[in-house]
Amino acid sequence: MAAPHLSRELPLKVAAGRTLLIPYVMAGLDDQWLDVVDAVVDAGADAVEVGLPFSDPIIDGPTIQEAGVRSIERGTTAVSALAQLARRDFPVPIVVMTYYNIIAHLGHERFAGLATNAGVSGAIVADLSLEELDGWAACADDSGIDTVLLVAPSTPPERTQRLCERSRGFVYAVARMGVTGERAELGSGVIDVVSKIRSFTSPPVCVGIGVSTPDQAAEVGESADGVIVGSALIRRLLDGEGPNGAAEFVGSLRRAIDA
C-alpha cells in the first residue's frame, strides 16, 4: 500500500511549531490558475486546496459558486483540471476539494489514478458521509490519497471520534454552520469545535469556512494546527487580482499567523 502523502508531510511542519496555512484555489477559473497556485506556495502556503468545479456545490457559498460557474463555462472538468495539475510539480501537498458525483461518474479507480498522476496528496469529498465512505476511501488509501473528513460544530462527540479515527492528512474543522463565505467575525465556534476534536486522537486540526482576514487567521492559529482560507482569496481572484494579488493576500495571512 502506498504511504499517504499528507499524513507524512503535514505533521512534520506542525511538530516544528509552524501553523499550517492552506489557501483554496478554484481549478480552471482562468488561464492563470496554476500560476496562482505557484504564487500562494511562494507566499507561504503549506498546502493548497484545489476546488474541482461542480454544478451543485452544496457546501459552497456565493463567492466560490461564482468561481465554479466561471470555471465550468470555460469548459473545465475534473479530468481537464487534473491533467493541467499534472503538468506542474508543486513542492507542497495538493488537496482536491470535490463532490462525490464527480468521483462516481469517473469511477473510484479512474479518479484516483488521475489524481495520483496529477500529484494530488489528498481529497475532501464534501458530500460523502462516513457511512458511505468505504468504497472511495479504500481506493484512495491504496492510491496514496488521504481522505480528509469534516467535523462541524453540530457533530456529536461519538461521531467526532469516528471521524477523527478515519480522517487522513488532517481533520477539517468547520468554523461555523453554513456554507463557505467571508465573515466579519468568527465567534466562539472555532474554539469549541477545535476543543471537541482535541478530545480524541486525530491528525492535525485545520479550521476553515469563514476565515477571511489576517487577524482571523492569527486567531484560529492560536488553537488549531492549520488555517484554511477560501472565499476571501477567491473574491480577489474574481476581481482580477491574479497571481500577484493572491501572493500579497496569502503573504499577509502568513505574516499574521507567524507573528
At a glance:
The chain is of the alpha/beta class and 259 residues long. It is built from 12 helices and 8 strands. It has a single domain (5-258), classed as TIM Barrel, CATH 3.20.20.70.
Word description of this protein:
Mean pLDDT is 90; it is low at 1-5. This protein has 259 residues and is α/β, with parallel strands linked by helices. It has helices at 5-15, 33-42, 62-73, 78-85, 100-106, 108-117, 134-143, 157-166, 189-198, 214-221, 231-238, 242-258, and strands at 20-26, 48-51, 94-98, 120-125, 146-151, 171-174, 205-208, 226-229. Helices cover 47% and strands 15% of the residues. The protein has an 8-stranded parallel beta barrel with strand order 1-2-3-4-5-6-7-8, surrounded by 11 helices. Helix 2 (33-42) runs parallel beside helix 12 and helix 11 (231-238) packs antiparallel against helix 12. It has a single domain, classed as Aldolase class I (TIM Barrel), CATH 3.20.20.70. The termini are far apart.
CATH topology: TIM Barrel
Radius of gyration: 16 Å
Low-pLDDT parts are: 1-5
% residues in beta strands = 15-25%
Instruction: Tell me the name of the CATH homologous superfamily.
Output: Aldolase class I
Would you report the number of β strands?
8
